[in-house]
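Assess this today:

___
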Amino acid sequence: MTDHGADVDFPIGYPSYLAPEVIAQGSFHPSDPSHDEAPHPSGPKTDVWSLGVLLFELCAGRRLLQNIDISERLKFILTLGCMDDIVTVLAEEHGCLDTIKELPENLLDLLRKCLTFLPSKRMTPAELLGDPVFEGISCQYRPFQKPVSLFSSSLRCASLELPEDINDLCKDDDGDYLAERGIDEVYHLWCLAGGDLEKELTNKEIIQSKPPICTLPNFVVEDGESFGQGRDRSFLLDDTTVTLSLCQLRNRLKDVAGEAYYPLLEDEQSTLPQSCSSNELSSTVTLPLIIRERDTEYQLIRIILFDRLLKAYPYKKNLVWKEARLDVPPLVRGLAWAALLGIEGDIQAKYDSIDKDTPIPTDRQIEVDIPRCHQYDELLSSPEGHTKFRRVLKAWVVSHPELVYWQGLDSLCAPFLYLNFNNEALAYACMSAFIPKYLYNFFLKDNSHVIQEYLTVFSQMIAFHDPELSNHLNEIGFIPDLYAIPWFLTMFTHVFPLHKIFHLWDTLLLGNSSFPFCIGVAILQQLRDRLLANGFNECILLFSDLPEIDIERCVRESIILFRWTPRSATYRQHAQLPKPAGDNGFGKSGSYFSSDYQDMPKTDLSREPLALCDLKAEASPRISAEDLIDLCELSQAGIPKRNKSGKPKIVAVDIRSGEDFSRGHVSGSINVPFSSVFSPDGELLQCPASGALHNYKGSVIVVISHAVKSAIIFASHLVKVNFPRVCILDGGINKLKLTGLLTVPSPQI
């Protein structure tokens, strides 16, 4: 806790029991030329010395060095270095030589081993346990086993021993289930139930506030040395133990049934345990997230559930996804995110193998960026926080030689470091999994083609979801290049504080790599009225200091936008390449929304890559023929199947002439010949076809034609007259000719 005593300005221990090297630490000054090197810091071997003193006192039947003052005591301990046999010297000093000499030889030997002056020659506690004195009992000591962490290569159940009679496990003595939970869980719940650590310590007078005037020195010398102020108690060793009362917490949880502590994961009916408070809990689910996160009972049940699911990771990966859709308990967020990102393997060994010490050219930039990154947070602004930041960022730069450090990478690292502050390896592993999924090739040395394509698709998304806003922003020349690069390059960590990022990323990690577009559009829609009312300069000012954004509303709206977006509409040729299928047998089942378009098998009906200049020329996104078939629910018979709930409502608009339309068209599509609806200058004409179009305003409109060029012009005209959700069929009607899905109307008799 104190970095071997370096972080506190007092020796750890009591004067009479201090090891010589701890006392020497106090008299050592780095500037003193007579000392060659600093003494060894405090550590387990200093405890071996203290144990020796305690054993000596027990054998001699008296306390050591009680009759001389502290400074003399410390001097005496330091002079023991000149003596050959410290045990005999101490016995002579205290007049108990006879008592000590009568001790069994093996005990004297143990005392000498403990009271070895030089720490380099003194035994460690583990070695000491092998001493003959402990022969009879050392076999009963089980070697310490480090609790197995979630992401490691060792078996989690290697040391699991079940009793002969399984009923022994189920003995319900006093039903104190809370006592079986981990200390970090109980402390978290204690705080939620109204516990306040600072208040407790103030009540016990461990934290004492002094009036500022009383802290002034009486006398200050020119070089800054001050006199006349006693040392502040709070800087000295205080070994008071404060027990925090659980009464308030137990009282709060008294209605939680015992079953709640042992949820059944395979129960199909419900994720919430059937307890007397379950009705109350199911009503809690509908409350805003911020209230749910502060509800003690709700958090207890969610934490227990996630704890169970994470312990069964990766087998319960699908259930983790399902539960995370509801919410992620703040206490386990770091591990839950790691599970959602699919972290596995021995992450610690991998992290340890990366060279984080050798200077590299990026060091200077990292040093400059860290002190500006989320420094309102106590953890991240602490010296330890800065050191960890430096190590994790360096590990990422060193282990990704094909990528470079861009400003903003520090912001991206911040949420992972904050959540896994005591597990740098996990923070590094999460960051390394997050970047290829959401920011593939964003950190190339020359990333302009990737970013330009990303921003162009974002512009198309704005036009797709909110044409009125899109038209206004394009009119005043306020393009995404001016405001959205820090959004996407840092996945919004540069523009929002951490507590908002947590809620945003809880959902982001459930979506695919195109979900950030929807978040971007949702942010613009929150600022919609102000953007529509203002010109270029005002918009620039508005974004230079982004107004308060309601993050819960943003998340809700981005999910709706995401559901309305056909999957291939956000196709990017610079997105991450398809991952090999079925890598470990625990892969998530690809649901419609969380799987990425580029992971789907490529067919003749998939979207073709477009040159950037062509992509920029199109106001509306293209969608693939397979998406159209999927969303229109077309079957081989050509009859549109019933529309499933959850998928976008969609209408195919065929803009070819009536003659071409009658030769073969998509089943269920409407024929709106281009020339009959728009005048040459792009005005919408009044006619039955345009009336039909108006009826479908709000659905996803897929424009189909022979030549994609005319579809592009038609779509841009629709966007100009504020038709939302307009897209173009990539490859036109010709793509569908080979599928056998086109129908011909039966002749009129």
